[in-house]
Design goal:
The complex is a heterotrimer of chains A (about 180), B (about 100) and C (about 1000).
Chain A (H helix, E strand, L loop, with lengths): L13 E4 L2 E5 L4 E6 L5 H11 L10 E4 L2 E7 L2 E6 L3 H9 L5 E4 L4 E7 L3 H6 L16 E6 L2 E9 L3 E7 H17 L1
Antiparallel strand pairs in A: 1-2, 2-8, 3-6, 3-7, 4-5, 5-6, 8-11, 9-10, 10-11
Chain B lengths: L2 E4 L3 E4 L4 E5 L13 H9 L7 E7 L7 E7 L5 E6 L21
Antiparallel strand pairs in B: 1-2, 3-4, 4-5, 5-6
Chain C lengths: L17 E10 L2 E7 L3 H7 L6 E2 L6 E2 L12 E4 L6 E5 L9 E5 L13 H4 L8 H6 L6 H11 L14 E13 L3 H10 L6 E4 L15 H16 L4 E4 L2 E7 L3 E7 L15 E13 L3 E3 L12 E3 H9 L8 E6 L3 H11 L3 E6 L6 H9 L3 E4 L1 E7 L6 E7 L6 E9 L2 E5 L2 E3 L2 H5 L4 E4 L4 E4 L10 E3 L9 H18 L42 E3 L4 E2 H9 L5 H8 L12 H12 L3 H4 L13 H5 L16 H6 L3 E5 L2 E6 L7 H14 L1 E5 L4 E6 L3 H8 L12 E7 L5 E11 L2 E6 L4 H14 L7 E4 L4 E7 L3 H8 L14 E6 L2 E6 L8 E7 L3 H12 L4 E3 L2 H10 L48 E8 L11 E3 L10 E11 L4 E9 L8 E5 L5 E7 L14
Helix pairs in contact in C: 5-6, 5-11, 7-8, 12-14, 18-23, 21-22
Classes of the chains: A alpha+beta (about 180), B mainly beta (about 100), C alpha+beta (about 1000).
């Protein structure tokens, strides 16, 4: 049998306009982690597994190598990794008091860059992304149009990432393209 | 359009939230032994105060955590928000805020 | 006529226009010329056009009154076709080349208007006329309404699709400053002196506010430019011109409309949106919205040529247009004196009529210098000229202001510049929830800061706060800016605002005169005293309302319509309140004020929607297989936000044919359905089974790893809430499915219980709906087809019904659930979403020799109905228990606690003769009952007929070879075998047999085969 075709929600589409670019990123493994991260035990085992201290301040993320951990909630983290997701999930799932789910395919990740990126994002989200309140290393779940997104700040350049559920990806991408012309 | 202080994420726009009605309505135990009236009271009856109201809110488009809020239903003033496990905050005395919510 | 009223270039006026850039425009079919920088109003006035419209109720000829957005009269129909926009204020339209506008509310022409007959019958058109006349008999309202709607209203709504695009966006700031006049600029400058993020918003095309209309022009503009330059260099400051704050809501959420390209003319904006809707969240707001001059309410004060005094000055100074060569200034305060001087200085013959006596020697001297005649203690008693003022008659005014006396003087004039004083613009403060207080010294309401709404911290500064000189406005603005920045947590150390004053005569010692008497009592004789021009309301209407008992100010507003509609009482509000106070013999504050409503000025729906229009109006959710469906010719159905294939028509097939073919194929060969939209929830933790036990009605303790079970969820009312299949993946690991529409609801439901009621349980729920792409294979050939593609042994022995196996399908990792929503042999293949497209292509290819048919949601509905499987939300409606659905088999008899348990025993849920799900077979097998059709207990010729149930699902079933239906029928289970009657909307009565709900394969052999 021929190698399976791997599709992303947007087939890695991109779009550029003067002062703004958006592109869908290729897959990385994604794991939803649940645990009591306040507990030393849980945190130590996760740190060992990922090499990142998962005791994050709310609405921040940490990156080490090609692994990132995002705060989603007090007992919820999202891991981006290029490692072996299956192995990580089953290791983690077997630890007492923890849960891990492979959500690699759950969402699309868009990279937004260029001087107009803030204005594009502000068109759809009521969350204030001014650098003094949302700086590099910050992330948040919020609303963009009618979609829930995970927004993260990756560079003062600026560069942002928006993660959105697969089924909403086209809506969000078209929304971004439309407002990019208006800002 | 409110600003609501999510106990986990801080001040956020109202459109990130949804309201799920009166807070502090625990599910009864031993339901089989309950009278129709007692059960009906749990299922159907809620207070609807003109004034301070403890409500359950969900940060729908955010951290997806439930929390409680103490809100004035006339002025929409959020006195405080608190985590589910936190004790009920006391009601402000009416002298602090007059009934129409204006500073006195 | 070529700009006959335009002042010569030599005069130091007309700072806003560019005489080197002439523009051509059309009004009521006639071509005129104006200049770049004109408004439509100033250009028309320059051309001597005074008659701009007909009034709302009496169709009286009307002209310009104002120069800004407070204009109540000059509402025009702008542009034509798809670009047309009604009720635009000529004073707010920036002139562009080729502009086309029409006057409104006149037929057939502006000069000769048939509707003006209303004016002659005006004594029969008093306040509340429509309420009184047309409300009885109620049945006739439908008849009256057509005529009233035609006669009323102003402009005409566009009927074509809006060709423009709009943008909406959020903005955040520490300090929002509303208004870019002297106070606003000072506030922004002061606030921005620290690190505060400042947003300065002004509705005009250039900032400056009142500075733009003063004769002290050069100094004013130089002062403004210097301040603005400093602001523009500050990265923390954003300045928006052509932007009107329209609404002020809770927690300092404000909306504003920016006219981005309106001034370029239709279709000339390029890629830019026509308008932008700003949704602003400000920590602090400085309201520097200025003030609006009030007209004096004298007899026939609505004649074209009667204008607000400051408007006359603005047209002269800003646009170089003299509204009339002979000007009568009629005032009760000082501010109009400068207007008189301005008009005289450009060559007008000016007369000042002041209701006050004892005018200061200083004023008298300056008038004398310009040869301006002054009448002290006089008032206008009447005017001449219907379509344009020709002269006024003035008489002495009694000391109490109640009557006129002495000799009448007739003064020839073409313009009356009237000033009844200045009304602070408290709209924004009022909208924010603040209350106003009456300030005697200025005869007006100002914000009462002690009664501001807590959640809307703001400060008012400048003339909207009751100070009227430029220097005071600057001072107060700077102070407010400083305070606002500090309150926002970004204090500035110094204000850095330069003091500034201009040559002006501010309101000064006003002598309120709310209603100018005439020789007849007001309301008698032919003359009318208008206080609300837009809504055509007169002082006599207020008197009538008072006589009829409408003394509450809110009742007065609604009964007379004063202060309503797009005008929101900008020029009329205070006059109306004062006239009412006078009638009742109470003070103005005792009458109180009405609440100002958003929007401050009209705004387009398009702008409010912004980019969220057309394809972006509602999100369209798509599955990983969507492209394949499109390529295969699917017709889509909206299921919630999802686009799901409804059916796949082949060439020449209509919907019925396609659906019948698909439905047959599933039971005869094999069909495939995209089931990716079903909600999927991953549940882990040692207490996972406890959760399932609570949320489902049946037992979950003994479910083996690798096995699946159907479950029904109830809410605490005991009503069916959702259903689905849950599979045990591991010791403490489950995979739950929900209905497509219920996915988010169920996820929230589980989380709510876990977080609020059972926080000590160790259970984690994670939505995995989009992690998995799902194809359901259904039909007798399903196994053979699947076996070709998978390494899993799919034989019945090793992979029985209601179990799950993991392996690969078409070379990619998969979980296969052997569950069925059709009653056929069925496999639901789940692969990671990235392989969804690959999976469907592989199935389609391998399926060729198995006569695989893709089918959509319609065939799915028929197939499940043939088996009597319910759809939550179609066969249930939130009032239906498991017993009503004849599903007692799924309710545990041993389990004590689960959600909704106790409600099963409530008297109402356990009573006899509740509606219950049954099957219906029509007498005529070719007739398909309409869903929703009522089953009636007795058939009458006419409704009402007692109803005992209704049809919930109804289809032509190719597999049953006839029509089938599911229905809720009172005591239905006991009525099986009975014949019932259904009465349709068109009166047809049909008979149907009450049956079991399973129409195909009653033994259920196929699903296990």
């Amino acid at each position: 049998m021929a190698n399976p075709v791997i599709a992303t929600p947007l087939n890695e589409a991109d779009f550029s306009i003067d002062g703004f670019s958006v592109a869908e990123l290729d897959y990385s493994g994604k794991i939803n982690l649940r645990a009591d991260f306040e507990s030393k035990h849980a945190n130590q085992s996760l740190t060992k597994l990922l090499g990142i201290d998962c005791q994050l301040a709310p609405n921040t993320y940490k990156t080490s190598g090609d692994t990132s951990v995002f705060w989603l909630g007090p007992n919820e983290r999202l891991v981006y990794t290029n490692g072996d997701v299956d192995a990580m999930v089953s290791q983690w799932r077997n630890k007492a008091g923890c849960a891990a789910v492979d959500v690699s395919d759950y969402s699309s990740v868009l990279k937004l860059s260029g001087p107009k990126a803030r204005d594009v994002i502000a068109s759809g989200t009521p969350f204030d992304i001014h650098p003094e309140v949302f700086s590099v290393g910050d992330c948040t779940q919020t609303r963009f149009g009618n979609a829930t997104i995970l927004l993260s700040n990756h560079s003062e350049a600026p560069e942002f990432q928006i993660q959105v559920r697969w089924s909403f990806a086209e809506y969000v991408f078209e929304y971004i393209k439309r407002v990019a012309r208006y800002v | 359009m409110f600003i609501i202080n999510c106990p986990y994420c801080g001040d956020r726009d109202q459109t990130e939230f949804s309201c799920h009605g009166e807070a502090h309505i625990p599910r009864p135990t031993e339901t089989a032994q309950m009278s129709d009236d007692a059960w009906g009271n749990y299922v159907f009856f809620r207070t609807n105060p003109k004034g301070y109201h403890r409500e359950r809110w969900l940060h729908t488009h955010g951290c997806r955590r439930w929390f409680n809020a103490l809100r004035h239903t006339v002025t929409d003033e959020f006195v405080t928000t608190y985590k589910i496990e936190d004790p009920r905050p006391p009601l402000p005395t009416e002298s602090q805020t007059s009934s129409d919510g204006r500073q006195s | 006529m070529s700009q006959s009223q335009r002042l010569p270039d030599e005069l130091p006026v007309g700072n806003s226009i560019d005489r080197g850039a002439p523009l051509t425009f059309t009004f009521d079919g006639r071509q005129y010329t104006g200049y770049q920088g004109d408004t439509l109003a100033s250009a028309l006035l320059a051309n001597g056009v005074r008659l701009l419209g007909r009034s709302f109720k009496y169709h009286r000829p009307r002209g310009l009154i104002a120069a800004g957005s407070e204009e109540p009269n000059a509402l025009v129909q702008l542009e034509t076709g798809a670009y047309t926009e009604p009720n635009t204020r000529a004073t707010s339209i920036e002139l562009y080349d080729g502009l086309v506008a029409k006057s409104q509310n006149r037929w057939p022409t502006l000069g000769f208007d048939v509707g003006a007959v209303n004016s002659m019958v005006a004594r029969f058109l008093p306040a509340g006329f429509y309420y009184k006349t047309f409300m009885w008999p109620a049945s006739m309202w439908m008849t009256y309404e057509k005529f009233i709607r035609k006669a009323a209203g102003l402009g005409v709504s566009p009927v074509d699709d809006d060709p423009d695009v709009y943008h909406s966006t959020y903005a955040h700031c520490d300090v929002l400053v509303i208004g870019g006049g002297p106070a606003g600029i000072a506030a922004a400058t002061a606030a921005a002196n620290g690190s505060a993020r400042v947003l300065l918003v002004d509705e005009n095309n250039q900032l400056g506010g009142a500075l733009l209309g003063t004769s002290d022009n050069a100094a004013s503009l130089a002062y403004r430019d210097k301040a603005l330059q400093a602001l523009k260099q500050n990265n923390n400051v954003k300045i928006l011109s052509r932007t009107t704050v329209t609404g002020y809501y809770d927690y300092n959420y404000l909306t504003a409309i920016e006219k981005v390209t309106d001034h370029l003319g239709p279709g000339n904006g390029g890629d830019a949106p026509r308008q932008r809707f700003w949704k602003i969240r400000a920590k602090q707001v400085v309201i520097a919205a200025g003030s609006i001059e009030r007209p004096l309410v004298f007899a026939d004060n609505d004649r074209p040529g009667v204008m607000l005094a400051n408007a006359v000055a603005t047209y002269i100074n800003r646009y170089g247009v003299l509204p009339g060569n002979d000007v009568v200034v009629f005032t009760n305060n000082d501010s109009a004196y400068q207007v008189a001087l301005d008009a005289a200085s450009v060559g007008a013959t000016v007369t000042v009529v002041d209701t006050r006596k004892n005018i200061s020697a200083e004023f008298k001297a300056s008038l004398q210098q310009q040869s301006i005649r002054l009448f002290e203690g006089h008032a206008i008693s009447s005017v001449r000229g219907a379509k344009g003022i020709e002269s006024v008659r003035i008489m002495g005014l009694s000391d109490d202001g109640e009557s006129l006396h002495g000799q009448a003087w007739e003064i020839v004039c073409t313009c009356v510049a009237t000033s009844g004083g200045w009304t602070p613009s408290c709209h924004m403060f009022s909208q924010s929830g603040g209350k106003l207080k009456y300030e005697e010294s200025i005869a007006g309401f100002i914000p009462d800061t002690t009664r501001a709404k807590k959640s809307c911290p703001n400060l008012s500064a400048g003339s909207c706060n009751g100070v009227f000189t430029t220097s005071e406005c600057v001072e107060q603005g700077a102070d407010a800016g400083l305070k606002a920045a500090a309150a926002a947590g970004k204090p500035a150390t110094s204000t850095d605002v330069a003091a500034f004053a201009v040559n002006e005569t501010a309101q000064g010692a006003i002598a309120p005169l709310w209603l100018v008497p005439t020789v007849h009592p007001v309301g008698e004789g032919n003359s009318k005293h208008f206080h609300d021009f837009q809504n055509d309301v007169t002082a006599a209407d207020i008197q009538l309302a008072a006589r009829e008992g409408f003394v509450s100010v809110e009742h007065l507003k609604r009964y007379t319509t004063t202060g309503m509609a797009t005008d929101q009482g900008k020029t009329s509000n205070l006059n109306a309140l004062a006239i009412m106070a006078n009638i009742q013999g109470v003070s103005i504050p005792e009458v109180g004020t009405t609440t100002f409503r958003p929007p401050y000025t009209p705004l387009t729906f398009g702008a409010v929607g912004g980019q969220e229009s057309r394809e972006l109006f509602i999100q369209e959710r798509k599955t990983p297989m969507h492209e394949w469906h499109v390529a295969s010719g699917a017709v889509f159905e909206d299921v919630g936000d999802w686009k799901r294939p409804w059916y796949f028509p082949q060439t020449g097939e209509d919907m019925h044919a396609a659906v019948q073919r698909e439905t047959l194929a599933v039971r005869q060969s094999v069909g495939m359905l995209d089931a990716s939209t079903l909600g999927k929830i991953d549940i882990q933790g040692k207490d996972a089974v406890k959760l399932l036990e609570m949320v489902y009605t049946n037992n979950w303790q003994k479910l083996a790893v690798g096995s699946c079970r159907y479950g029904l969820m109830l809410n605490e009312h005991g009503m069916i809430f959702d259903d689905g299949v849950t599979t045990r993946l591991g010791e403490n690991h489950y995979h739950m499915t929900t209905t497509t529409g219920g996915a988010a609801r169920v996820m929230s439901w589980l989380e709510e219980w876990l977080q609020t009621e059972w926080p000590e349980w160790e259970v984690y729920c994670t939505s995995v709906t989009e992690q998995w792409a799902v194809m359901a294979l259904n039909g007798p050939n399903a196994r053979a087809l699947l076996q070709e593609l998978t390494d899993i042994d799919v034989s019945n022995d090793s992979f029985p019904f209601m179990t799950m196996r993991e392996g690969t399908v078409a070379g990619v990792p998969a979980r296969i659930y052997r569950i069925s929503f059709t009653g056929e042999q069925s496999f639901e293949i789940n692969v990671p979403a990235r392989y969804g497209k690959h999976l469907i292509e592989a199935l389609a290819e391998a399926g060729k020799k198995h006569e695989l048919v893709p089918y959509g949601t319609e065939a799915m509905h028929i197939l499940r109905a043939e088996k009597g499987f319910i759809i939550v939300g179609q066969d249930t409606d939130g009032t239906v228990t498991p017993h009503d659905m004849d599903m007692d088999w799924i309710v545990s008899k041993t389990k004590i606690e689960y959600l909704g348990n106790r409600s099963q025993q409530r008297t109402d849920t356990s009573r006899d003769k509740r509606p219950q799900l049954i099957g219906l077979l029509t007498e005529d097998p070719t007739v398909v009952l309409p869903e929703g059709a009522h089953i009636v207990a007795e058939v009458h010729d006419q409704p009402p007929m007692p109803t005992i149930g209704h049809v919930t699902s109804s289809y032509m079933s190719p597999n049953a070879g006839r029509s089938i239906a599911l229905a809720l029928l009172q005591d239905g289970i006991n009525r099986k075998g009975d014949t019932v009657s259904l009465r349709l909307m068109d009166g047809t009565v049909l008979q149907a047999l009450v049956t079991d709900t399973v129409f195909v394969d009653q033994e259920g052999a196929r699903v296990r085969g």
